[in-house]
Amino acid sequence: MSKALYQPQSGLLTVQYAPDEQTVLIENPPRFTWIPAQLEHDQYILQYSTSSQFTPEDTITVQPIPYNLYTPDHVFTAGTYYWRYALLQRGEGQPTEWSHIRSFTVQEGLPETPLPSRGHRYTDISMKHPRLWLQAEELPEFRRTVREQPSKYGWDVFLERSVKPWVDRELIPEPLPYPNNKRVANLWRQMYIDCQEALYAVRHLSVAGVILEDADLIARAKSWLLHITSWNPEGTTSRDYNDEASFRIAGAVAWGYDWLYQELTEEEREEVRNNLLTRTRQVAFHVIERSKIHHVPFDSHAVRSLSSVIVPSCMALLGEAVVAEEWLDYTLEYYACLYSPWGGADGGWAEGPMYWTTGMAFVTEAMNLLNKYTGINFYRRPFFQHTGDFPLYCFSPDTLRASFGDQSTLGDPVSLKTGFNIRQFAGITNNGHHQWYYEQTRAIDTDSEMKFYNYGWWDFRFDEMMYMHDYPAVQAKAPTDIEPVKWFRDIGWVAFHAHMDRPKDHIMLLTKSSPYGSISHSHGDQNGFLLHAYGEPLAIESGYYVAFGSTMHMNWRKQTRSTNNVLIDRQGQYAGTNKVLNMSASGTVEAVETHKGYTYSRCNATAAYQEQVPYLERYVRELYFYEGAYIVVVDQIDLSQPGRVDWLFHTLYEMELDGQSFKVHGQKADMDGRFVYSSSGDLSLSQHDEFTEVDTAEIEGLNRHWHLTATTQSARSHRIATLLVPLRKDEPKYVSYFMDDQGHGVHIYFTEDGVTHKVEIPKPY
Predict the structure, then answer these.
(1) Measured CA distances, 196 to 189, 202, 245 (Å)
(2) Which of 300, 438, 634, 762 has its CA 20 to 30 A from that of 308?
(3) Taking a C-beta distance cutoff of 8 angstroms, is the pair 461, 162 a contact?
(4) Does residue 587 contact residue 527 with C-beta atoms inside 8 Å?
(5) Close Cβ partners of 544 (under 8 Å, ≥ 6 residues apart)
(6) How many helices (H) and strands (E) would you count in the chain?
(7) CA-based Rg of the chain, rounded to a whole angstrom?
């Protein structure tokens, strides 16, 4: 009997072998994944069976499978199953040695989310154009409706503000190279904004011209399309030169080719088609062959390019290029099996809410296009059913600087595009809380449309028109009945809320200790926390998102010293450029609890410091949120050698320091902070307003932030308890406390409005 197929060891950055005995399935059928047996030209055979002996009558065999992932096309009956795979011999269709056998159990009642097999995915689709958004058979009814009711679907606003500006606008020149071909942040951004404008011109003129049967609009759309088609696809707008620019131009060419198909001569079609194929091939090569997101899924731009490029381009090219079907199949299989690499069944997004916004903006558009054209509906998957809750709890509409990760909107109100995204999920799930969120952001964010993070990425009138046509109206419901503490287990984020429905009364406390560590757009902030209360950011995400890779980004924002966290002998968590170490610098949420009068979390960030503080044995932070009124932070730090701890706190305003207390005086609210217990004695408090090791040119004209450092004495073990009391400007709050020593630890009693709570702190060793 031959030995089992050699199976490479899975790592932190690779897909895992699944499912197995430890896997709790969240949907039916299961998703099969394994590590590639070789990195080039794989083909596999897969078997799954109700028999561990794989008897023929109980076994289903699938071959060939081109990549290391597979989603069955049918639902499994409840029960226990076994599976194995093998590498196929090229040209022979025969398996090499089989892998180890793994088992899994399918429970009753799971969401049913099969994926049609490759042979049946496109059998019922039409080869007519357009295919992107409105289908050819929908055009007459839509045309009739907007002619009779110009305001229907926001059509009149779309025409006025998203179509007419491009009629007389001069054609945008092909972007010039960077000086010496070295990327410059502001030129990179201007380049992709120019390309976004080209997308607006082609897409909006084409859609409007065809719907209205307006020869002048169609002619202008053609001129824009043929103009950008003349740009060198291997030049400044290629994937490898500026991927953001390439995504936009590929999208523009796809929409133009699809909607203007009947208006192009055969020679023009060939010219546009070849350009689109070249641009799509660049992206597909990077995604599938170079980045290999089916093996190592944590490439943010590569994953997003499936939605922004592969889906619209391949839909437009189906039936005209064999590779279009191959690339689209890869994308559908990735969506069905591995999406999202940044979250799971709870709907979290480890990169943070702004990258959730970007990711969801493109993936929902892609999934809407796919659903309408192919009938494949990925929204049934658990991630999409729940992901609208992520911004609701972790990026609440009235908050500022109160969420983790890279954020281009840092310091601005919650992005209106985030609201548009969450409305999409309201339409999918009929969730009134999500509709409420959208209406709140629409009321709050009224003047950001022309900022680069909106104008350079999406057009709200086009979004509005598509949504109003495709989805029903949902009744808004204020979040009066939400969970007081929400744990996103998939990403290790915990959100505490009181009175989210009333912004003037709202208190939000957010913490994280994530298995994703500091990879991609995440930071070295495991066990960090943020506090927003009564309309005021109090404990903040400090700094600015100048540009990815800037000194502000790499030396401040990603580093632990920019967060409300601790340093140990001045060292923080690993947040450099080694992806394996980024993922290893992780944290764990050990407990989230709801009790009478308070909510609680316990997070462990020991692993996050191991690279830089190898003598750290344990770092656990507990948060107590009492009566929706005040917070107690308890830190437990154990070392194998004596060391000092810096307890860090960041805010917008210079603080008032007095002994063991610090006070924040904001514009709408204040906060009293006090170190009520430190096992090594009183802490030494200081503050400054510098962004350490940041190029001053990057922050010229930007407001400074204030950074508190409270330093302990040197000791092998530290216990620190900190009281944080957010205060209304016009309504003082009094929290008293006293301690007693129980020998095995310290008990601290906190009293506010006659209600007393006890916190137990174990003695240091």
Answers:
(1) 10, 10, 8
(2) 438
(3) yes
(4) yes
(5) 410, 411, 552, 557, 698, 699, 702
(6) 19, 27
(7) 28
Rounded to 5 degrees, φ, ψ at 267 are -65, -40
Distances (CA, A) of 601 to 460, 512, 515: 38, 10, 16
Integer CA distances (angstroms), 459 to 282, 391, 463, in order: 26, 21, 6
Amino acid identity of residue 285, one-letter, is F
Cβ-Cβ contacts under 8 Å for 658 (sequence gap 6 or more)? none
For 447, the 3-state DSSP assignment is coil
Residue 244 near residue 358, CB atoms below 8 Å: no
pLDDT, tens digit, 9 for 90 and up, residues 102-120 = 999 999 999 999 999 999 9
Question: What contacts 663, CB < 8 A, 6 or more positions away?
Answer: 655, 656, 670, 671, 672, 673
* Distance in angstroms (rounded) separating the CA atoms of residues 67 and 228: 35
The CA distance from 2 to 26, in Å, is 35
DSSP string, 516-550: TTT-TT--S-TT-EEEEETTEEEE---S----TTS
Residue identified by tokens 């060198």 is 232
Cα–Cα dist 35/9, whole Å: 8
Q: Which residue has the higher pLDDT, 632 or 2?
A: 632
Beta bridge partners of 706: 651
CB 538 within 8 A of CB 548: no
Spatial CB neighbours of 486, under 8 Å, sequence gap ≥ 6? 389, 393, 494, 495, 497
Mean pLDDT within 744-755: 94
User: Beta strands 656-658 and 661-665: pairing type?
Assistant: antiparallel
Strand, coil or helix: what is 721? strand
**Contact between residue 510 and residue 403 where contact means Cβ atoms under 8 Å apart:** yes
Encoded tokens for 442:
């629409």
DSSP 179: G
Q: Is the pLDDT of residue 359 over 50?
A: yes
Pairing type for strands 645-651 and 566-568 reads antiparallel
**Which amino acid does the sequence have at 73?**
D
Instruction: Enter the tokens of residue 115.
Output: 């994926």
Q: How far apart are CA 289 and CA 36, in angstroms?
A: 13
Which residues have CB under 8 Å from 123's CB, separation 6+? none
Token pair of 315 as six digits: 């839909």
Q: Does residue 3 surpass a pLDDT of 70?
A: no
Rounded CA-CA distance 253/68 in Å is: 32
pLDDT at 39 exceeding the cut of 70? no
CA distances from 225 to 201, 243, 251, 257, 269 (A): 9, 20, 11, 8, 11
What is the pLDDT at residue 448?
87
Cβ distance 419 to 413 under 8 Å? no
Four-residue CA torsion sign, 327, 332, 337, 340: positive
H/E stretch holding 125 reads none
Return the half-sphere exposure (C-beta side, CA atoms, 13 A cut-off) of residue 361: 22
* pTM tops 0.85, yes or no: yes
Q: Where are the beta strands (DSSP E) in 368-409?
A: none
Cβ atoms < 10 Å from Cβ of 602: 18
Average confidence (pLDDT) over 281-288: 98
Per residue in 678-737, pLDDT tens?
999 999 999 999 999 999 999 999 999 999 999 999 999 999 999 999 999 988 889 999
Specify burial of residue 447 (Cβ count, 10 A radius: 0-12, 13-18, 19+): exposed
Q: How far apart are alpha carbons 568 and 561 in whole angstroms?
A: 11
**Total length of the chain:** 765
CA distance 67 to 53: 25
